[in-house]
Amino acid sequence: MNEYENAIELRGVNKTYKDFGLENVSFIVPKGCIMGFIGQNGAGKTTTIRSMLNITKINSGEISLLGLDHVQNEAEIKKRIAVVFDDLPFHDMFTPKDIAKILEGMYPEWNNNVYSDYLNRFELPYKKKIGKFSKGMKMKLQIACALSHNAELLIMDEATAGLDPVVRDEILHIFMEYLQDGERSILMSSHITSDLEKIADMVTFIDKGRILLTGYKDEIIEQHGIIKCGYDKLTTIDSDDIVSIRTNNFGAEVMVNNKEQALSKYSDCIIDPANIDDIMLFYVHRYDKEWLR
Description:
Elements: E1 6-16, E2 21-30, E3 34-38, H1 45-52, E4 60-65, E5 68-69, H2 74-80, E6 81-84, H3 96-106, H4 112-121, H5 135-146, E7 153-157, H6 165-178, E8 185-189, H7 193-199, E9 202-207, E10 210-216, H8 217-223, E11 225-229, E12 242-248, E13 251-256, H9 259-265, E14 270-273, H10 276-284, E15 291-292
Keywords: ATP-binding, Nucleotide-binding, Transport
Protein name: ABC transporter
Organism: Ruminococcus albus SY3
């Protein structure tokens, strides 16, 4: 089995559609890491994931998963990774028992004992047709399947969307268990940033098909801050420091891209910490001179 440093590498990936495209998309997911892949609906998250899986053919660039070329080594890669989409890819007539028989033939390392343990843990009936499952049950079934064949890389597209907070928390805990040996990695696409705040080591932010930020989550959060000030102060803030400005009835909130520098330059202003949600919002509005709360 090949040794690799990065579970995922995208270098200069381009994909052009009539009214949308991926433009020079580049980022890495080091082995043993959870990457939160964030962006609005329609930002390019699913297109990027489909490109990695060679479902969508890219126009140019390079993609490698587990150190292997995503096209030349597609069959080997797909035996060693697990993918969870927001829709269950099995027919409603199947039961979890039927699905185990199908996947046992597809994955060399499929483990029925692990699968049964997850079904029990998620309280999923073994012989009930999945057409009668709720959305939450279907998602838990997908995750049980994904974690039952010793996958080295787990790719999830909005996997926790539509689940209640208690179930989401349980699933995040299971993902942390899955990563404990340091040899496995996760790419987790989500617009629920609170989930990613809890478990992600790194974040990559995509908007309109372009990567705006990628790196270690704590460093990105530490780097940004929000200045709260009156309108009269706005002219004193250097435009190079500003991501965007949100106005309200009381004044303005200005996201700055270097909080430490801003603390010394604008010492008479209050500078609040920013979370991932704030950073995403202010970057989405980066081309607006000012935007309303």
